[in-house]
Amino acid sequence: MSRRTLLKTGVAGGAALLAAHWLYTRSTVQSVADTRFVALAPDARAIVAAIVPVLLDGALPTGGAAVAALDAVVIGVDVAIGGLPPAARKELDQLFSLLAFAPTRSLVAGVWSPWPEASPAAVADFLAQWRDSRLLLLRSAYAALHQLVMAAWYGNERAWPAIGYPGPPSLAIG
Amino acid sequence: MTTAILRQSTLPDPFRDGLGRGWKVIDASTLAADLTLEADVAIIGTGAGGGTAAEILANAGLNVVMIEEGPLQTSSDFHMREAEAYPQLYQESAARKTRDKAINILQGRCVGGSTTVNWTSSFRTPPRTLDFWASAYGLTGFSAADLVPWFDRMETRLNIAPWAVAPNENNDVLRRGAQALGIPANAIRRNVKGCWNIGYCGTGCPTNAKQSMLVTTIPEALQRGATLLTRTRAWTLEHRDGRVSALACVGLDARGTDPTARRVTIRAKTFIGAAGAIGTPALLLRSKAPDPNGITGKRTFLHPSLVSAALMPERVDGFAGAPQTIYSDHFLDSLPLDGPLGYKLEAPPLHPLLVATTLPSFGPEHARWMRELPNMQVVIALLRDGFNPASGGGSIGLQGDGTPVLDYPLNDFFWDGARRALLSMAEIQFAAGAKAVMPMHSSGVSYSTWRAAQAGIAALPLAPLAATVVSAHVMGGCPLGPDAKRASVDQTGRHHQLENLYVFDGSLFPTSIGANPQLSIYGITAKLASALALRLRPA
After folding, report:
1. How many angstroms away from the CA of B519 is the closest CA of chain A?
2. A/B interface, count of CB pairs below 8 Å
């Protein structure tokens, strides 16, 4: 792809993002009723909850601890976004609008069912396509989701026993 | 969370003791009303440049106010937990990025700036770099010989000395691999005193062993009566007829992310920009400081760095032990300074959050590599940008809300260096006995022999956000030099157009350094701030 085409599609991609965000936020009224969350609206939470089991497939515990671990990661992502500056939060807000808005979720992300019903295979396809996309904008969106989710899990001490990390050492003297 | 309670340090915290003795520290997130302060000198930023300048100017008897965007966190607050430390102590939670998101930048944002969170590597400015500044930019008074007394002074001040303890295995793999290939590798000097060798420099030193600005120069300045403002973002310099009259600041909220309605105004005789090579140019741009030649915020350098992970047959435990103690300059020294990009090789600490966010791919493959964390070894290659015309660095722009963003295009000249760097790192890792090497790249591809890596890396598609590129060193944007057409500040650090504004930080550098920059900033600031102190000293 030539630099010129890349620039044009990059600009077009940016415009699509903004348009989806505008349409989406006008067409929905969301309340962040769950006080555990500071940054993620319910639809964004559903997206994160759908991608976490795929990004962390093989890392998250199975069985009884699975639900609590998934919850911890979603909350961790929310806390991490809440700690970012306003400009970065706004960009992520646009990204989640694009992914939540059914037409762009289908056409740009290739996920045809609403997020809570999306199959792990469909979510994995979406993530791989964005990761390997020719469009820098989509690669950067994938990178943002990857960074948020990996940080939320591996920054949490629940993740450490499985990876042989003993945690910080004791500072006790003597 | 009993472990967290147990880890509540019972070690001495000299900074908290100082607060108890009445040091003047104001957290703008707690201000009930706007505030105006007067000072001889206002220093914007408390990192390597601001901290060094604060001590020298306060010791000269000047009334100093320091303005810091980040919070005051001291050793009692440092719990060695990434999830806590990155949002507290780093710009943008350690996820600051270039405009196209292709480079992740680690930069401190707390009292002490990046010196509070860096990995203690201390190098004098390479003589080749200084020679280049003299020949290409006309600098005088900055030769290696000229700077010897200033490096000596700061090395004494910050206890910079050879590190006598054996390197941890993560660093020793770099040493052994280089040795096996006949490549020189040496020990890094460190700014520590009584270091426990635990490996958590990057989350704030819990034992106060690291001689950062937080435990050295800033306490000294406060002891001399200086004032420190925290969670205070320097927003604009008010200037007229070639002089700055005041600095207008906004208060930040307790999270440190969002501006509040609080305004802080500093009226001073002299102003020093020391907010780092993103913050200082951004302040000048927001202030519409005179810039007749369009220099401010241009030629910003990063030492853009490539990363290579290896799996070793034995345990590495790269999360334990002093994080960065071995380096090789072979791929800098063996290339012409202004030729193809050369690179410095070093090792980073391997804590789980940093590793997990850097490892490519997702799902079972990512999880498999994470389970190998104890056997993982990582080398980084820091590219020496800014010497060849094809390596022009980046430029600082302002976003809609006035906050800065760095645009740093990655061109073919860069990718050529990046590919050579990935090859060198893989060869060294295999020479040290690696079972597998994975260049950090979105393909997630890994190799089990040097021969396979050589062929694979040669063909790897390199592009922004395909290859992982990171940075921990931001430099340039307000370059030093005698020629106002090519430099923002003169050779005293004084702005060419604003007579009472100085820049004392990494923005001064006309190119990158080609080494971890903290000691370059300390030494050059010590020289410039000492001369300024002589001129400003009260009669």
Report:
1. 28
2. 135
Interchain pair A163, B95: CB under 8 A: no
Question: CA neighbours within 13 Å on the CB side: how many for B156?
Answer: 6
**Which residues in chain B have Cβ-Cβ distances shorter than 8 Å to A159?**
352
C-beta separation of B88 from B186 below 8 A: no
In whole angstroms, what is the distance from residue B398 CA to residue A68 CA?
41
Pairing status of strand B189-191 against strand B121-122: antiparallel
Q: Do A86 and B100 touch (CB under 8 A)?
A: no
- Find the Cα–Cα–Cα–Cα dihedral B298, B299, B303, B305, rounded to 10°: 70
What is the pLDDT, as a whole number, of residue B1?
A: 37
Nearest-Cα distance to chain A for B24, in Å, is 27
Closest CA to B516 of B347, B334, B378, B310: B347
Tokens of residue A27, six digits? 């067409």
- Residues 72-111 on B with a CB inside 8 Å of A are 79-83, 86-87, 92-93, 95, 100-102, 104
List, in order, residues 6 or more apart from B331 with CB less than 8 Å away.
B342, B343, B344, B345, B381, B420, B421, B424
CA B331 to chain A, closest CA, distance in angstroms equals 30
Distance from C-alpha of B76 to C-alpha of B7, rounded to nearest angstrom = 10
Quick one: average pLDDT of B224-239? 98
Taking the C-alpha atoms of residue B88 and residue B72, their distance in angstroms, rounded to an integer, is: 9
Whole-angstrom Cα distance, residue B404 to residue B287? 13
Question: What chain A residue is nearest to B255 in terms of C-alpha separation?
Answer: A83
Examine the pLDDT at B185 and tell me if it is beyond 70: yes
Of B10, B320, B352, the CB nearest to A160: B352
Nearest to B343 by CA among B387, B383, B392: B383
Mean pLDDT in chain B?
Answer: 97
Assess contact for B283 and B480: CB atoms under 8 A: no
Contact call for B352 and A154, based on CB within 8 A: yes
Residue in B with minimal Cα distance to A1 = B463
Q: Say if B352 is an interface residue toward chain A (CB within 8 Å).
A: yes
Nearest to B432 by CA among B185, B198, B162, B197: B185
- Say yes or no for a CB contact (<8 Å) between A80 and B355: no
| pLDDT of res. B171 | 98
Closest chain A residue to the Cα of B3, Cα to Cα: A170
Q: B44: helix, coil or strand?
A: strand
Q: Kindly report the backbone phi and psi dihedral angles of residue B464, in degrees, each rounded to the nearest multiple of 5, phi listed first.
A: -55, 135
Nearest Cα residue to A146 out of B204, B405, B317, B440 = B440
Reduced 3-state DSSP string for B228-248? EEECEEEEEEEEECCEEEEEE
Those residues with Cβ within 8 angstroms of residue A85's Cβ, 6 or more apart along the chain or in another chain: B92, B257, B258, B403
Question: pLDDT digits over B370-402, tens only?
Answer: 999 999 999 999 999 999 999 999 999 999 999
Q: What is the pLDDT of residue A11?
A: 52
pLDDT at B537: 83
Using the structure block, give the residue that is written with the tokens 């022999």: B449
Q: What is the mean pLDDT of residues B266-283?
A: 98
Q: Which of residues 300-319 of B touch A (CB under 8 A)?
A: 319
